[in-house]
From TrEMBL:
Catalytic activity: N(6)-[(R)-dihydrolipoyl]-L-lysyl-[protein] + succinyl-CoA = N(6)-[(R)-S(8)-succinyldihydrolipoyl]-L-lysyl-[protein] + CoA
Species: Lacibacter luteus
Listed Gene3D superfamilies: 2.40.50.100, Chloramphenicol acetyltransferase-like domain (3.30.559.10), E3-binding domain (4.10.320.10)
Protein name, entry field: Dihydrolipoyllysine-residue succinyltransferase component of 2-oxoglutarate dehydrogenase complex
Biological pathway: Amino-acid degradation; L-lysine degradation via saccharopine pathway; glutaryl-CoA from L-lysine: step 6/6
GO biological process, one term: tricarboxylic acid cycle
Keyword Mitochondrion: no
Enzyme class: transferase
Organism placement in taxonomy: Bacteria, Pseudomonadati, Bacteroidota, Chitinophagia, Chitinophagales
Amino acid sequence: MIDIKVPTVGESISEVTLLKWTKPNGAWVERDEVIAELESEKATFEINAEQAGVLIYGAQEGDTLKIGDIACQIDETAPKPEGAAAPVAEAPKKEEAKSTAPVTAVANDIKATPVAAAIIADKKVDPQSIKPSGTGGRILKDDVLNALSNPGKQAYKAAELNSRNVRKEKMSNLRKTISRRLVESKNTTAMLTTFNEVDMGRIMEVRSKYKDKFKEMHGVNLGFMSFFAKACAIALGEWPAVNAYIDAEEIVYHDYADISIAVSTPRGLTVPVMRNVESMSMADVEKKVVELAGKARDNKLTMEELTGGTFTITNGGVFGSLMSTPIINLPQSAILGMHKIQERPMAVNGQVVIRPMMYLALSYDHRIIDGRESVSFLVRVKELLENPELLLFGKDPVKTLLEV
């Protein structure tokens, strides 16, 4: 038997949670095959089989394990089954074969039996208001009739009408860490937020004009994050206190911009870091954003990618937020909040015109950053965003953007 132990995943981390097994108990696994996913207080990571053999669980999903604990064992003396590996992989196919009743698409991905679809069409029922009870989320005849008999009534998912159900779920290590750090940030910093607004018209013009060429040359879309990241990198160089933090009785300044970007995932908020943004091109930033966001969604971020940022950008606008006060990401001293772009009437040269505007919010630690510095930093970011040619410095801004 080979013991597979919980590896050391970083300083100060003493325990992890077993999120899920990727192979069933008793299945044959190959060497280096991923067999489980673990979650620490900062990130998720995988453990691999050290040898080929039969997997024997040493813990269950949801269990808390100490670093060095035995997560499972591999019996390398067991004979390899003939044919393919785990027989359990066949189960989903057999399950699908049983549920081959005819279905009709009634709206986008919503499926219904022919009778149910006919009633929906005849009675002009909104399919979204119907709670499906069929296999694979199919709407059955009784589901439609139940919706018609209870017009305007909608129960929560997986609940009946007039339900008083209460559910409890164990907090994940990541959620515990988020909670602890947010409270720590509020309690240990003199946090203040200053606001401004930026006219996004010029950036939108640049994106509209060059997005196809940019995508053709670099293989990524030209988004807003590259403009904001580059603008912040320039402003951080001009106002170094915003890029610093307090360490005991010293102020630690950074002559580079390692910008963290807040990424929402199903398991909670993660904040991966882009290194040396001041030295990156627009295309470099966009490629890095895509890479980090993808890793965050797939729980593939490493500890190195989650530590060491000097400043953070968070974009609540993707969820429709018009204005908010972001909380500082310790040990950093400031965070910039982007928000929804909304057309508003603005006074321009004595005329009222409709412009695409975005509110910006800069939360900062007043112990290290004074009002003059915070406001001046945000004004500089606004100036750079409203005049993107200042970001694309060079003899030819277009060539700088496209890196020709």
